[in-house]
Amino acid sequence: MSNRRQLDDAREFIIIVIIFTEGQVLHFCTADCRLSKKKGLSAEEKRARMMQIFFETKDVFQLKDMEKIAPKEKGITAMSVKEVLQSLVDDGMVDCERIGTSNYYWAFPSKALHARKRKLEVLESQISEGNQKHTNLQKSIEKAKIGRHATVQLKSSNLDEAFCD
Predict the structure, then answer these.
(1) CB within 8 A of 98, min separation 6: which ones?
(2) Where is the Mnd1 HTH domain (predicted)?
């Protein structure tokens, strides 16, 4: 029996999950999996796999549909589907709309691409504003140095005279 356990422990591999969206890498995730034991997925892996479902099917789902699909196709336990889905909705990665008494969930690759582009534009504008502030502060420092340069020399010369005497 110990030989079998050693053989099972030796069967290790790495799973690499990459979700592509219109030429861009949306999410990259690696997991160390052992064939001998089923290991639970981390929250980030569950989120990535749930997003894969949305991006691959490009369809709208109800919670009960996701609770059936996610365990079969992506190995996400049915008990955690609602929690994972709610975290994706809270982060704005999945849209949710209540129609009548049902909640419908969807996420399309184009929305993720547009969201990343908007975030990039915001960050680039913040960088340019920061650079502008930096140059303005550098200019004000140079102006302040011009007026204070003589007083600093006077103080240092007064201190030299005081200590030398």
Answers:
(1) 104
(2) 50-109
- Distance in angstroms (rounded) separating the CA atoms of residues 130 and 149: 28
In 77-118, where do the E strands start and end? 95-99, 102-106
Contact in structure between 105 and 89 (CB atoms under 8 Å):
yes
Query: Cα–chain-centroid distance for residue 148?
Result: 47
| Token couple for 46 | 């569950």
State the Cα angle at 130 between 128 and 136, rounded to 5°.
Answer: 105
Please tell me the distance from the alpha carbon of residue 73 to that of residue 87, in angstroms, as a whole number: 20
Of residues 133 and 108, more confidently modeled: 133
Q: What is the average pLDDT across 63-71?
A: 91
